[in-house]
Amino acid sequence: MTTLDTRRPARLRPGGVSAAFVGLELRRMLRNRRTLVFTLVMPTLFFTIFGLQSDFRTQAFGSGNVTAYVMVSMAVYGAMLATTSGGAMVAVERAHGWSRQLRLTPLRPAAYIATKMIVAMTLGLVSVTAVFVTGGLVGSRLPVAAWVACFVLAWLGSLVFAAFGLFVGYLLPSENVMQIVGPLLAALAFGGGLFTPLHGWFATVSKVFPTYGIATLARLPFADASGVSIALALLNILVWTGVFAGGAAMLFRRDTAR
Fold first, then answer.
1. Which residue has the higher pLDDT, 67 or 114?
2. Of 35, 75, 91, 110, which has the fewest CB atoms closer than 10 Å, so is most exposed?
């Protein structure tokens, strides 16, 4: 006698973001050793190398110390790397045909993009947490409110680079995407004043880099900043997020139209 299996298979909600799909994507990313090095090891290592030099722990910067300044900068840089690499994985999926397989399911394009953004921001959260925990252990000094505000701003500001990762993931071939994105992010971080304070004409030019907005806002809770600088930082983030998200949506439609 045959027994019928009455259990219903897990179904994907038509067009919606599935928690199971998000979990699957996160496990795939965390199994990638290169991703773990980019999100956890490298930003924390850079912070311990540059943030613990000489008397940085006793030298004041704003309402904190220089070690805290380096910690926030490296947390932003780590979030940039994590969110960009999370979005750029679409290049590899396109090459392997995974994107075409997903288009045979009820998953809508908007839900696919939203899932990628959620995974990228989760990786960014892990990276920022790793740097801040290390900073708290080795002597970063900030007011309590600044600790919380810097953490939130460093993480949420990286949304612009989650969109950037998707944009380059659809723009570049898979075999070249990480080789190009890694040095490009380092150049953008330097050009936007993330690694070191800029002066003169270079400080003026740096305001157009997509890293300027997130660097300025993340330091705002403990550093002096004018209303003009804050407005420019917000405008910078809004404009670049719109450019990258719009570009990713356009390239996605072109890719799915084939």
1. 67
2. 110
Decide: 99 and 255 in contact? Cβ < 8 Å: yes
Which letter does DSSP use for residue 196 in this model?
S
H helix intervals, the chain = 19-30, 33-36, 42-51, 66-96, 98-102, 109-138, 144-157, 159-171, 177-191, 200-205, 210-219, 227-256
Determine the straight-line distance between the first and last CA of the chain, rounded to whole angstroms. 49
**226-230: long-range contacts at Cβ-Cβ below 8 A with a sequence spacing of 24 or more?**
none
Closest CA to 125 of 82, 89, 96: 82
**Which is more confident, 54 or 10?**
54
**pLDDT of 205-216, one tens digit each?**
888 999 999 999
> CB count, 10 Å around CB of 240?
21
Question: What are the beta bridge partners of residue 60?
Answer: 65
Give residue-wise pLDDT tens across range 17-47.
678 878 888 887 777 777 777 777 888 988 8
The pTM of this model reads 0.84
**Contact, 74 vs 46, CB < 8 A?**
yes
Cβ–Cβ under 8 Å, residues 163 and 87:
yes
pLDDT given at position 83: 87
Q: Are 142 and 64 in contact (CB under 8 A)?
A: yes
Question: Among residues 104, 111, 100, 107, which one has the least CA distance to residue 12?
Answer: 107
- Tallying the residues shown for the chain, one arrives at 258
Return the amino acid letter for 240.
Answer: W
Q: Which residue has the tokens 């270079």?
A: 202
User: Could you tell me if 139 and 67 are in contact, meaning their C-beta atoms sit under 8 angstroms apart?
Assistant: yes
Q: Can you give the pLDDT at residue 52?
A: 82
Please give the structure tokens belonging to residue 47: 């912070």
